[in-house]
């Protein structure tokens, strides 16, 4: 490693350690104002409006997105656009979460005035005690004074990292106190890998699985296998409960004189099945482990659906 590479690595490590240290300081500095902010957000009848200018604005957008995806209705309002009509997006019952490291960002003036005029509760996050934002806020969360990651101390780095982490802390506190579950999360993330990982068998299965009674002649069984197109058929007992399954392997094992048999004589008893509420990823793992392409889906003793490996793969489950 050359000397210049060593210097670059040292800079990177210093920045990360400085920001990590700032987060430790922030964790230790959280107090009653954090709890008050969570309580205020939980009681909101409307939405959480997150705002900030410049780098704080970028952080505000992310915090609003995190709130929205974890069950707290929220959106970002740009402070400059707010002064040109977007204040109409802030209504009675909403809660404002306003970010500004200095607490004196001039573009926030109209939002602060709006909050006072219409009685909209305001949570302020800033790094300067006694600043305009801190004085105007109903709940003021003060960021600890720690150096920025750059040696000049002028580039928003450590301060924005702390603000981002604070936003995550607020969102997770809200999520946990509202008992926000993976099912709720899936509703807000229907696409992408997150949504795919949280899909359940009932979301992907086919209703009306191929089923035949135990006494069905194999000629009729083959017709049912071909008609449904899954390559398998479930076999039910006299009470309608799932008794077994017939796969291509069962057909090959009974090829000699196959048409003289009934479904009950050819089937494999006690087949592996999956519950409707199981995660689709669990079903895919079972199919991969057993080297099979289908699983019958059961509720109690009855088969109510069927899941094919291709259904999982098309949905992005892996």
What can you see in these coordinates?
It is elongated and about 90 Å long. Strand 7, helix 11 and strand 8 form a beta-alpha-beta unit. It has 318 residues and is an alpha/beta fold. It contains 15 helices and 13 strands. A 5-stranded parallel beta sheet has the order 2-1-3-4-5, sandwiched between helices. The chain has a 4-stranded mixed beta sheet with strand order 6-13-12-11. The chain has a 4-stranded mixed beta sheet with strand order 7-8-9-10. It has helices at 3-29, 32-42, 55-69, 79-82, 109-117, 132-136, 158-177, 182-188, 192-198, 201-204, 218-228, 248-253, 263-266, 280-290, 309-314; strands at residues 48-52, 74-76, 95-99, 121-126, 139-142, 206-207, 211-213, 233-236, 242-246, 268-269, 273-275, 294-299, 302-308.
Class from secondary-structure proportions: alpha/beta
Named CATH topology of the largest domain:
Rossmann fold
CA radius of gyration: 30 Å
> Count of DSSP helices?
15
- DSSP strand content: 15-25%
Would you tell me the overall average pLDDT? 90
Spatial gap, N to C terminus: 39 Å
- Number of distinct beta strands: 13
CATH superfamily of the largest domain: Glucose-6-phosphate isomerase like protein, domain 1
């Amino acid at each position: 490693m050359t000397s210049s590479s060593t210097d670059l690595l040292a800079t990177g490590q210093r920045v990360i350690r400085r920001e990590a240290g700032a987060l430790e300081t922030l964790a230790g500095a959280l107090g009653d104002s954090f709890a008050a902010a969570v309580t205020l957000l939980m009681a909101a009848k409307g939405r959480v409006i997150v705002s900030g200018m410049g780098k704080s604005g970028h952080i505000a957008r992310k915090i609003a997105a995190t709130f929205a995806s974890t069950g707290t209705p929220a959106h970002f309002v740009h402070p400059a656009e707010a002064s040109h009509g977007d204040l109409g997006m802030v209504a009675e019952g909403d809660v404002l979460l306003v970010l500004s490291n200095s607490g004196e960002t001039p573009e926030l003036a109209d939002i602060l005035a709006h909050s006072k005029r219409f009685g909209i509760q305001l949570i302020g996050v800033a790094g300067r005690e006694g600043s305009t934002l801190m004085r105007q806020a109903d709940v003021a969360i003060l960021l600890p004074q720690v150096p920025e990651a750059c040696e000049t101390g002028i580039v928003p780095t450590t301060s924005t990292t702390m603000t981002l982490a604070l936003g995550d802390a607020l969102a997770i506190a809200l999520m946990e106190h509202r008992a926000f579950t993976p099912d709720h999360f899936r509703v807000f993330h229907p696409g992408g890998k997150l949504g795919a990982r949280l899909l359940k068998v009932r979301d992907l299965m086919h209703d009306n699985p191929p089923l035949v009674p135990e006494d069905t002649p194999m000629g009729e069984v083959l017709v049912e296998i071909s008609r449904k197109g899954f390559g398998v058929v479930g076999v039910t007992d006299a009470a309608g409960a799932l008794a077994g399954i017939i796969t291509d392997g069962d057909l090959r094992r009974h090829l000699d004189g196959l048409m003289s048999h009934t479904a009950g004589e050819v089937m494999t008893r006690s087949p592996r099945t999956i519950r409707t509420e199981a995660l689709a990823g669990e079903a895919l793992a079972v199919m991969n482990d057993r080297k099979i392409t289908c699983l019958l889906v059961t509720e109690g003793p009855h088969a109510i659906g069927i899941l094919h490996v291709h259904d999982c793969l098309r949905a992005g489950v892996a």
